[in-house]
Write a structure and sequence with these properties.
The structure is a single chain. The protein contains nine helices and five strands. It is of the alpha+beta class and about 210 residues long. The protein has two domains: about 100 residues, Ribosomal protein S4/S9, N-terminal domain (Ribosomal Protein S4 Delta 41, Chain A, domain 1), CATH 1.10.1050.10; about 90 residues, Structural Genomics Hypothetical 15.5 Kd Protein In mrcA-pckA Intergenic Region, Chain A (Roll), CATH 3.10.290. A five-stranded antiparallel beta sheet has the order 2-1-3-5-4, covered by helices on one side. Strand 4 and strand 5 form a beta hairpin. Helix 5 crosses helix 9 and helix 6 crosses helix 7.
Length: about 210
């Protein structure tokens, strides 16, 4: 399966904002975008031309896709599903992405990044409603219970991530029990409850052409 193998920080610099791809490093002075707030490459600091309407739409799509760590084909499937659902397509898209298991594991603070959360899920360290799930894209529904498996409760990556999770604002649509290493998806998040600085309507316009 194809995957991005270059430096993660280049993605943040290309989009011009933090995508929080490297956990605690993104909150420290070592964050690349704090030192080099311009696109990577030899022409990154040169004067750039005015971005076209298509360019704005493309950058917004790439930013959201990279934020959630998806490949183009995966992202497009989520858009198609969002377009078929009732409601506002852009908001539906973000809701679908937020309800992925790997994202919720990250939002609960069990992993320092979505990439780490995906690895925890793949290695069968998480359970949903009492059953082990190893599919990062598993879609969670309201009142699903996410738990760290009993034999995985001593993992330092989990406890380290929970110690650092205080930097993130608590989300009203999630419940966390740190003592039991357990969380619950209370409801599908509304747009105003999703902490993503995205203009999702631009993505809808891009794919609607």
């Amino acid at each position: 399966m194809a995957r991005y193998r270059d430096a993660q920080c280049k993605l943040c610099r290309r989009e011009g904002e933090k995508l929080f791809l490297k956990g605690s490093r993104c909150y420290s002075d070592k964050c690349a975008i704090e030192k080099r707030a311009y696109p990577p490459g030899q022409h990154g600091q040169s004067r750039r031309r005015k971005v076209s309407e298509y360019g704005l739409q493309l950058r917004e799509k790439q930013k959201v896709r990279r934020y959630y760590g998806l490949l183009e084909a995966q992202f497009h499937k989520y858009f198609e599903k969002a377009a078929r659902s009732k409601g506002v397509t852009g908001e539906n898209l973000l809701q679908l992405l937020e309800c992925r298991l790997d994202n919720v594991v990250y939002r609960l603070g069990f992993a320092p990044s979505r990439k780490s959360a995906r690895q925890l899920v793949r290695h069968r360290h998480l359970m949903v409603n009492g059953r082990t799930v190893d599919i990062p894209s598993y879609y969670l529904r309201p009142h699903d219970i996410i738990q760290v498996r009993e034999k995985s409760k001593n993992l330092e990556i989990v406890h380290g991530a929970l110690r650092d999770s205080g930097r993130m604002e608590p989300l009203s649509w999630l419940r966390l029990d740190k003592a039991r290493l357990e969380g619950e998806l209370l409801e599908r998040p509304r747009r105003e409850d999703i902490p993503v600085t995205a203009q999702e309507q631009l993505i809808v316009e891009l794919y609607s052409k």
